[in-house]
Specification:
single chain, 520 residues, mainly beta, Neuraminidase, 12-stranded mixed β-sheet, 4-stranded antiparallel β-sheet, 6 helices, 34 strands, 14% helix
């Protein structure tokens, strides 16, 4: 070997050793590290400059007390890996490999049971540590991996003291929380959609299809539900095809099911509410009664049954009254007719013992969400072309439609006989707390003081269709201070909250997205 070549070789060895020593120093000084990235780094550097001998990577020792990574790469012992993880606990960047990529992993100082669980459930499956938070009253640790097919993060949840769960979730970050979600597909057919969702007293999912079939989630395998659906007494056999007839909202009180639906048989466009008494296992309909029918008929030439409202909630703890919406469905022409009918475009109260109806407020186009905070009633409402609204509902107030809206009319489909109409304005009428332009297609609404605990417990939660998201709304001193968008990628029509504080969101394609909230 020539002197010149010896100098060059020595320089290469010196650079290699210096790089490894630098990496060790970084590993010991920072906060987090990733197991697979560490293995890849060590293997890459050794394989690049020196062959593995006898299946083991030669040890380069840091004079100040470096760690023997060679046993880390060949170890099959979880406890040994856990020990090394807890000892290093670092966050490092790879140097000298051309790309300077950064990686993160388990935090230093994890409780022993969580560290062991992470090795067993997380890092062994290429899941990287994300964050520590709170789930219910327990400490939670969230891991993730990249899903290149969906361009999303797939998460895994470890609760301190419990290493039995190995479920994978889609993971998203909110300002205050991590969202871990999984989508349960169903066997519903296109003609049964959109379907409506609620939860019974045991937390089981109950779905009513657009055609009025009552379905219960009985068996879920690999995130696919086989729904057991039974026909109800609702009959849409005479409904006009290619129209938006069908179920608009459901409300459950133990084994009593209330269904609001739009029908257009016998040339009469109307909304009705039916009460159905079911057996305790929901397998049989024992009785039914029609308890509400909208007055008169909508104009069949101008009516859009997709805008009849129909959302229902209980008005009182005794569940003796129902608050519901009856939309102003004539969105094309004929607004002069509907504006003179005091029952349309209203939010109303239905007294269940007497079936009597009382108006709460007027001037609504298509309210799709209703909820109470103590005695205060809030609504989410779909506007025309833009102008969706979030409203505080006060008795006797007129909210402006069809005379005012922050949205715009649908082109030429505007009645010319309604005078003094003003778009992009709410002058002279009760203004919304918030209006969305362009439209998000506001859907179901969940108020604070529900089963959600932690960071979201004081916030409103709004489903959207066109925007394919959930919106977290923070109301403070009479104004919306925060409107946080959480994209879900699906049209969300209904949302329910379980007793454990988990969110169930019904999509238009018949799937249910289940969401766990982990406070950051």
């Amino acid at each position: 070997m020539t002197p010149k070549f010896k100098v060059l070789f020595s320089a290469i060895i010196f650079l290699l050793v210096s790089s490894m020593i630098l990496n060790v120093g970084l590993l010991k000084s920072a906060n987090k590290f990733n197991l697979d990235s560490l293995k890849w780094t060590i293997k890459s550097q050794f394989l690049k400059y020196k062959e593995i001998q006898n299946g083991k990577i030669p040890l380069i020792t840091n004079p100040s007390g470096g760690i023997d990574y060679s046993r880390f790469l060949v170890s099959k012992n979880n406890d040994a890996q856990t020990y090394l993880i807890k000892k290093i606990g670092s966050n490092f960047s790879i140097f000298g490999l051309g790309n300077g990529a950064g990686y993160s992993g388990l935090p230093k100082g994890l409780p022993d049971d969580v560290a062991r669980c992470a090795v067993k459930r997380g890092l062994d499956k290429n899941l990287y540590f994300t964050d520590q938070g709170t789930y219910g009253l327990r400490t939670a640790f969230v891991f993730y991996q990249s899903d290149l097919q969906t361009n999303s993060l797939i998460g895994s949840l470890v609760l301190q003291g419990n290493c039995s769960s190995n479920k994978k979730f889609k993971i998203q970050k909110s300002v205050t929380s991590w969202l871990l979600s999984n989508k349960i597909d169903s066997n519903l057919k296109p003609e049964q959609l959109p379907a409506r969702l609620t939860l019974n007293s045991k937390g089981s999912k109950v779905v009513v299809t657009r055609l009025g079939e009552i379905c219960v989630y009985e068996k879920i395998v690999s995130d696919k539900a086989d729904l057991n659906c039974r026909k109800s007494s609702l009959d849409f056999s005479k409904a006009k095809k290619n129209t938006h007839f069908g179920v608009k909202s459901i409300l459950l009180d133990e084994s009593i099911l209330y269904i609001a639906y739009a029908t257009n048989d016998l040339s009469c466009e109307r909304m009705e509410i039916k009460r159905i008494k079911l057996s305790n296992d929901f397998s049989k309909e024992e009785s039914s009664a029609l308890i509400y029918k909208s007055p008169g008929c909508f104009n069949p030439d101008t009516t859009e049954l997709n805008a009849v409202g129909g959302r229902m909630i209980f008005s009182d703890e005794g569940k003796t009254k129902i608050t519901f919406s009856l939309g102003n469905a004539e969105i094309w022409t004929g607004l002069e007719k509907i504006s003179s009918n005091p029952d349309y475009g209203n939010i109303l109260t239905l007294d269940l013992p007497t079936n009597s109806v009382e108006s709460i407020s007027s001037g609504h186009r298509n309210p799709q969400g209703l909820c109470y905070v103590d005695d205060e009633l809030y609504s989410s409402e779909q506007g025309p072309d833009g102008g969706d609204e979030f409203n505080l509902i006060e008795k006797g107030n007129n909210y402006g439609w069809p005379r005012v809206s922050f949205g715009m009319p649908y082109g030429e489909f505007v009645s010319g006989t309604v005078k003094n109409r003003s778009f992009m304005s709410h002058d002279g009428y009760r203004k919304p707390l918030l209006s969305w332009v362009p439209a998000i297609a506001a859907g179901d609404l969940i108020c604070p003081k529900n089963q959600i605990r932690g960071a979201w417990s004081k916030d409103f939660l709004l489903a959207t269709l066109k925007d394919s998201s959930l919106r977290r709304l923070v109301l403070s001193e009479g104004a919306i201070r925060v409107d946080e968008r959480i994209p879900l990628g699906y049209r969300i029509r209904d949302i329910s909250i379980s007793r454990q504080g988990e969110i169930a969101a019904m999509t238009d394609e018949g799937s249910v997205i289940q969401i766990k909230l982990i406070d950051r």
